[in-house]
Amino acid sequence: MGTASIAGSDCFSAVRRVREELRSAYVQAIDAEHVLNRDHLLMCLNNVALAHKQGYNKMNRLDSELLLVLAGINNFEDAVRSLAPKEGGQAVLLFFSDRREVALQALQAFERHTDARVQELSFINDRPRLSRVAELYGIQWEELGCPSEQELTDALAERCAVFYSKYR
Question: Which of 35, 68, 105, 154 is paired with 46 by a 20 to 30 Å CA distance?
Answer without folding.
Answer: 105
